[in-house]
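worker-03 picked up job from queue 'complexes'. Input manifest follows; four sequence lines, order preserved.
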Amino acid sequence: MGYKYNKEDILNVGFDVFRRNGYHNVGINQILKEAGIPKGSFYNFFETKEDFAQQVIKQYGESNGCWMKDYFDDCSLSPIECLKSFYAMMIDLNEKDDYSGCCLVNNMSVEVGRQNNAIASEANTHFVGWLNILASVVAKGQDLKEITNEFTPLQLAEYLHAGFYGVLSRTKVTRNRVYMDIWFDMTFKFIKA
Amino acid sequence: MGYKYNKEDILNVGFDVFRRNGYHNVGINQILKEAGIPKGSFYNFFETKEDFAQQVIKQYGESNGCWMKDYFDDCSLSPIECLKSFYAMMIDLNEKDDYSGCCLVNNMSVEVGRQNNAIASEANTHFVGWLNILASVVAKGQDLKEITNEFTPLQLAEYLHAGFYGVLSRTKVTRNRVYMDIWFDMTFKFIKA
DNA sequence: TAAATTAAACAGAACAGTCTAATTATTTAC
DNA sequence: GTAAATAATTAGACTGTTCTGTTTAATTTA
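worker-03 finished. Artifact:
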């Protein structure tokens, strides 16, 4: 039997609240309220708000990395079709989420990446992890002559990654999937071998 | 003879401060300090912090739109070369700005686009304006068979726009121009007719 | 019993925004 | 053209709230 609250539950609340509302727009009290915990318990687990945010990013970054890895490992389609189904799913998820245009790590890095080195570095760590997973799929697609060989797997992964976050961010103000769909069509047409 | 302070100067300070530090991370007092004005003067010109931010976006959005229009109107190169020189310049500017990865409108829309409809709508207005300028150059490039005809000018403009902001945001944590250069090479290779 | 956790009152700083007074510019009256 | 009246702007002290983080005590688990 553990104690009443645990870190992971609070981190999950933090993920949800930060993702939807940003970092500076959210006060500790909002986290406490949504998690249903008193302040003392929060500061028992976390040193500061910044430390908390960093752990939130870390937990999400790692779990998302595992999830991506599993997705591509389990995907029975050809490499480029795996990439397509992955991004098609991401687009669907964002639509279902009512175009909140939210990736916690991307939002955080845009909002505070320049002022907060700890958060920027944490964000970059996970971006790099995700990019390597994408790059390994791209490499397989290149071996099968599905994907252009004119660029390295990592370069193409960066291209997919940045492009997707670009259109994802765009939906924050358009609230419409049409731009994501266009991006999808164009990108996969362009990277084809 | 006017009065001591004027709106435009304060808006310019706001542009600078918001661009570097974000919206919720900046207090009115910081604006006052950097602009060298007392609080009463600020609230004489602006209703609220939100109203101020909206006017900051508007001023920058419009002036940047004019600047883009002039740039392309004055550009003596072929359409696709104008686009290339434009983005090459944007990349250089971001490098000179020490990879602060900053477009005020993009930052604002990512940070508060989901919670603040007024700011989201203002941001979208200017994005659309900029996109139309890009699209008109793309259209000329298509007429000259420099740019692929497989997509509409606006679709290609959206693609350039979102892609650029995607890699620009990426530099917030990488602080390195290499990813922007890769994006540049790939994108202009891809959209070529 | 000892250590960890829970609980909430508390502290000091920072927050957006208000208020009244003094100053400056502009308009009106003659 | 000048003086008086009006309007706009400047100035900063002040308000009430919210912010992160502290503290101390009670409770729970090992």
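worker-03 released lock.
Chain B has one domain: 50-191.
DSSP finds nine helices and no strands in chain B.
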